[in-house]
From TrEMBL:
InterPro entries linked: UPF0478
Protein biosynthesis recorded as keyword: no
Keywords in alphabetical order: Coiled coil, Membrane, Transmembrane, Transmembrane helix
Name of this chain's protein: DUF948 domain-containing protein
Record-annotated membrane-spanning stretches: 6-24
Stretches assigned to coiled coil: 34-61, 90-117
Length: 137
């Protein structure tokens, strides 16, 4: 029975050595995996920093562009207001021109009536003068 005990101890020792060998192997593989994971994560961190910087630059450019659009929009608003003022001025000018034309037309009609009357008087006077000259001769 002692032999069986020694054989059992030898088998247990061999099993313990094999188990230790596999544990050491597993720890080495795990260490390599963790090192690879660490390298990958460091690469991702670098890439994320680059993406963050590019996103910040893009956001700044977008803000500058929005400010520029707002500035130009306000300038266009002023231009549109000015154009509306010009349109109103043109309407007032057109109205004044129509009033002036109507006034000139009325004055012309009044003057035409006076001119017609003056021509009649002039013709009558000329006829009178001519008759008078004929009667002297």
């Amino acid at each position: 029975m002692e032999v069986m005990l020694y054989i059992a101890i030898i088998i247990a020792v061999i099993a313990l050595v094999v188990l230790t060998f596999y544990i050491i192997h597993t720890v080495k593989v795990t260490k390599e995996f963790l090192n690879d994971t660490k390298t990958t994560l460091q690469g991702l961190e670098t890439q994320l920093k680059g993406i963050t910087n590019e996103t910040t630059e893009l956001l700044n450019k977008t803000n500058r562009l929005a400010d520029d659009v707002e500035l130009k929009s306000s300038k266009i608003d002023g231009l549109v207001d000015g154009a509306q003022g010009i349109g109103e001025t043109m309407k007032e000018f057109d109205h004044s021109l129509k009033q002036l034309t109507n006034s000139i037309s009325r004055a012309s009609q009044e003057e035409q009536a006076k001119t017609n009357e003056a021509v009649k008087w002039g013709a009558s006077i000329l006829e009178y003068v001519l008759k008078r000259k004929e009667s002297k001769y």
